[in-house]
Amino acid sequence: MPSHRKKEKGKKAGSDIGRLDFEAMGESSGSVLVDVERISFGGKEHHVLTSYGPISVAVYGDLDKPALVTYPDVALNYMSCFQGLIFCPEASSLLLHNFCIYHISPPGHELGAAPISTDKPTLSVDQLADQVAEVLNFFGLGSVMCFGVIAGAYILTLFASKYRNRVLGLILVSPLCKAPSWTEWLYAKVVSSLLYFYGMCGLVKEYLLQRYFSEEVQRSSQILGSDIVEDCRSFLDEKQSANVWHFLQSINGRYDLTEELKKLNCRTLIFVGEHSPFHSDAIHMATKLDKTYCALVEVQACGSVVTEEHPHAMLIPLEYFLMGYGLYRPTQRSCSPRSPLSPLCISPELLSPESMGVRLKPIKTRTTLEV
User: Fold this and answer.
1) How far apart are CA 166 and CA 146, in angstroms?
2) In the CATH hierarchy, which fold is given to the domain comprising 17-363?
3) Phi, psi of 104 (to 5 degrees)
4) pLDDT tens-digit profile of 112-162?
5) Which residues pair with residue 147 across a beta bridge?
6) What stretches pass through the bilayer (predicted)?
7) Euclidean distance between CA atoms 117 and 100, whole angstroms
8) How far is 229 from 347, CA to CA, in rounded Å?
9) Do 256 and 281 touch, CB atoms closer than 8 A?
């Protein structure tokens, strides 16, 4: 099979400093500059200069493996949004064995980011999606698997609708797909004003925590894993409020993707927390996508960021989903994949929601804890 990577010009992506020029690919083109720095978490962080400004991409794994691109929610980055899932041994063996993971941070959301001036124009959601295409161009990636959470799920879904030949599958967590309701729009405007004038104040943090987690986890200190709320609160203290303001403005200006969803033909796995504020968006999205290629997993007693609150609930659906591409845990297949993801390895009917045992209804993921 041909490599999933496109031919590169210039230095290899893993070099210390390099410049690559690519001819137009789809609707995006241009030159990018990367400054690679080693980070202490086992990967490399690449600072890529796109047509719309710099963006940080942390790369983990074997560059010869198929690519998994992630995108987090507002005010989060890959460590605060995907760490709970990646640190599960079962998920780690499944994902890192099969993929090279490219964690894209929204502009200014990486650790140690400099503040973006509020005088600088806010990027539109289309420009953020085009940034993803430029990142893929830089790394010489052709078709990729996409994994997004809330706002990040919207950006990657929009990317998939604009660059259909570059997306093999979508894994979406509590995805947004409609324009914001008047209530959401107004709340976001108020929070944007607080960020602008007061920075990451207590009210802003409470708004974001309610966006991410269920009330149960927020209120109780006796629930297993409830320390994720305090960890997230501490993480938010370190964020550049101006950068969060920019991304919140961008996502608050999003538009309805319903018509675009009807045209998507890639397999899609949707997770949504039972208590997520965006539950209705996820249900709406699942009804508009082709049911042959879409499965919805509703996780009970969970908020929006399932990857952190209930990562174990994702393992079995993820494993069955990836089987449709011929990808398995290393204990099941001794060889390491170095070829393109091939959805034709398994008949499409075997990846239907019914075959996955999901049946588009809630599944119980938490047992009652005895105190």
Assistant:
1) 10
2) Rossmann fold (3.40.50)
3) -90, 130
4) 999 999 899 999 999 999 999 999 999 999 999 999 999 999 999 999 999
5) 70, 171
6) 138-160
7) 33
8) 41
9) no
- Give the total residue count for the chain: 371
Q: Say if CB 36 and CB 14 are below 8 A apart.
A: yes
Task: Write out pLDDT tens, residues 34-65.
Answer: 333 333 345 799 999 999 999 999 999 999 99
**CA dist., res. 206 & res. 314, Å (int):** 26
- Whole-angstrom Cα distance, residue 12 to residue 45? 15
Structure confidence at residue 79 as a pLDDT band (50, 70, 90): very high
Q: Is 84 helix (H, G, I), strand (E, B) or coil?
A: helix
Cβ proximity of 29 and 22 under 8 Å: yes
Q: Give the whole-angstrom CA distance, residue 38 versus residue 169.
A: 29
Name the E strands within 282-341.
294-299
* Encoded amino acid at 157, one letter: T
Domain limits of the chain? 17-363
Q: Report yes or no: 297 and 270 within 8 Å, Cβ to Cβ.
A: yes
